[in-house]
């Protein structure tokens, strides 16, 4: 039997706190990408939550950190 955890993300398979972590978060883009991959933060492709019984829309908006935001589809 392997000592690996069956639910471990592939990027964490040979993780070493001193070397690997620096690579995973070496830039803001890499950090965001990794957090999206492990579903810690949503991505534009994530299933949107519902508002007013309808799925929310992804709207580009540079005022927000990720340059997009979910908006209620019934309120425009």
What is shown here, in short?
The protein has 76 residues and is an alpha+beta fold.
Kindly provide the radius of gyration, computed on alpha-carbon positions and rounded to a whole number of angstroms.
Answer: 17 Å
List segments where confidence is low: pLDDT < 50 over at least 5 consecutive residues: none
> In this structure, how is the largest beta sheet organized?
2 strands, antiparallel
Task: Give the quaternary arrangement of the chains.
Answer: single chain
What count of helical segments does DSSP give?
2
The SSE string, one letter per element, is: HHEEEE
Distance between the termini: 54 Å
Structural category is alpha+beta
Q: How confident overall, as mean pLDDT? A: 80
Sheet-strand content, in percent, reads 15-25%
Major sheet: arrangement of strands:
1-2
The total number of structural domains is: 2
Shape: elongated
Number of strands: 4
Task: List the topology elements.
Blueprint: H1 20-24, H2 28-37, E1 50-51, E2 54-55, E3 57-60, E4 68-71
Antiparallel strand pairs: 1-2, 3-4
What does this structure look like?
Strand 1 (50-51) and strand 2 form a beta hairpin. The strands form two sheets. Strands 1-2 form a two-stranded antiparallel sheet. It has a two-stranded antiparallel sheet with strand order 3-4. It has helices spanning 20-24, 28-37; strands at residues 50-51, 54-55, 57-60, 68-71. 0% of the residues are buried. The protein is an alpha+beta fold. It folds into two domains: 10-41, no CATH class; 44-76, no CATH class.
């Amino acid at each position: 039997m392997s000592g690996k955890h069956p639910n471990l993300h592939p990027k964490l398979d040979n993780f070493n706190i001193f070397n690997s972590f620096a690579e995973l978060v070496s830039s803001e883009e890499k950090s965001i990408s990794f957090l999206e991959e492990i579903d810690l933060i949503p991505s534009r492709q994530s299933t949107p939550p519902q508002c007013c019984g309808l799925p929310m829309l992804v709207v580009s908006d540079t005022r927000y950190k990720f340059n997009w935001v979910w908006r209620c589809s019934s309120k425009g």
